[in-house]
Amino acid sequence: MAVAAVAACAFLLVLAVASHVMAADPPEHLGEGVLVTGRTATAQVGEVGLSGARVVTTDETDHTLWETSNNGTTWTATGGSSDAKPFQLEGSSLLTFEGTTAKVGGLTFPAADEVILGKGGKLVSHRIPNGASAEVYDVATNTKLADYAPPFAMSDSTVWKVTEPGRLTGKDLATGTVKTILVASNCTVGPDRVNGRWALLSGCNQVVDVRGPGAPRNLTVAADSQLGNGFTVQITPEQDVLVTDLNDHGLGQRRYGPVRGEPTSFRADGSGLAKIVYADPDSKPRVITLSWLTADPQQRPDTVAPVLTSASAGDRIRDNTSLSFEWAFTDPQDPNSPATGVATYDLRIQQRPNRTSPYGAWNQVPVWQGLKGTAASTTAPIGTDTCWQVRARDYAGNLSAWSTSYCSEVDGTAPKLVTLRIGDRVAVTAPVTFRWAYTEDTEVASYDVVYKVAAPGAALGKWMYPPAWQNTRIRSITWTPRLGWDECFLVRARDYLGNLSAWSPQICAVAPQDDRALTSAGSVTRSTSSLAFQGTTSILKANGAYLTKTTEAGARIALVAIHGPGQGRVDIYHANLKIGTVSLAAGTTSRKVTYLPITPFRTGAVKIVSTSTAPAIVDGIAFLRVNP
Hints:
The protein is mostly beta strands. It has 4 domains: 2-289, Methylamine Dehydrogenase, Chain H (7 Propeller), CATH 2.130.10; 307-410, Immunoglobulin-like (Sandwich), CATH 2.60.40.10; 416-510, Immunoglobulins (Immunoglobulin-like, Sandwich); 514-624, Jelly Rolls (Sandwich). 1% of the residues lie in helices and 46% in strands. Strands 45, 47, 48, 50, 53 and 55 form a 6-stranded antiparallel sheet that branches. It has a 5-stranded mixed sheet with strand order 1-19-18-17-16, with no helix packed on it. 37% of the residues are buried. Keywords: Signal. Residues 1-23 form the signal peptide. This is Fibronectin type-III domain-containing protein.
């Protein structure tokens, strides 16, 4: 359904009530129409009608119908009459009223009913007096096509009606095509008020273009005016024929006549030509040819292809294998080249299986050619990138170029580790928190966390998989470490498509064993300190004093001691091998963790021996089963 937006116009013409204005500056008078000769030399006409070269009149006395197609050289009795109501001549169809019967083509109706022949003569409507709806028939086939509640207008094979305030809708009963024009909210349309490209509306005095987006005109006409194809005609109080040019934005006017007084008879040409027939004061038919009318803008063929207005393939990276593509086109138009409308669409896709592969050839899937809808969907394997392109054709066959590509990739990349933290390798404060973070093209769905531990004096055990830490959404684990235990962790992440990262590097934390866990020998004093781990220290006061503990395991030893002015030094032994020497001398007093050199993993006794006469304050010792 096409909708043409109608803007308000500033033209206003008030006729038959502004005679003082017309008298001051009346439209140009072009004289009388051409007399239709022959039979009219002796007979006087009642009603007149015109369709192309065909002039039809009634005898003023007996109401019989006569017609000529050669300007009166030959007149032929039609065999009908118009003794009940005025006949109607539109196109090649003649509607007559004789006695109690109305006739048009092969159709008959009661003459007392409302029978109206549509412009162009293709449709006729019939309604019983005060009936709620009228029947609309095809004159050529004598077939009933539809029922319409009045008021409405018929032009060619289309019925026009204001279906709701502000919307004039025309339905072509031959093709089913529907078109809607936006009009003023108080408009209505009645019989004979649509002809060619113009609709003359009541209630709002608006004339609108029903074929293209031409500007509307504001026009007030008399109730008995006629609507021709591109003009209106009405009779002035001076008995002149006043013609208004609807194709002219300025609504130019001319006068003709005079016409006969009561009963006045005049009709616009029923074939769509710019002509009028009227009965002159002598009751003779005269034909006016409106050669001065502005030409109806020639509607050039639609040569402009549709234009893409929007398209979307959704998220660039998708977290599912379902792909969709939506688009919209418009068919450009101008007043002289109305758009035929978008008819169908073609789609094509190209794909690559992963980010390191090139795209394949374009694939025009057969079921996606000539589409009527504006959306399509498919599925693609994980990792596949799919690019869509669309083009459109209008009803005139104009085909747009392929659009730019709109691409959507099914996520085939696993989450990537960006953060892995556990604090200090030797945890001298509690609690300890293991944290991790991953980045992902779509969204991380869950994590798996595993761990293993080593009790004092033992090697690390097997990896353990706590159920609560599998497919979990947590992003950190916090615990209070046990003294002397080494605890290690791994983590991995998956996205919603199941892409799974590798396990992270191993990350561990060990809590030192307190100095009280070691046996002393020689000159050793047990003491306390606010700086100390667990609050206690052991002071080696003489050369040779030592602390020892049997059966400790590790690949690296870390000494926790109080460093400061006047402090001595110690040697560290593990499994009877000297690992290194640590000096505790420093400018200020503080607790410090000193990591000794890495060694092969071994198990055996540990011994911390003073090698100076200066005191050495030992706070604790940690055994790293792995380094770091």
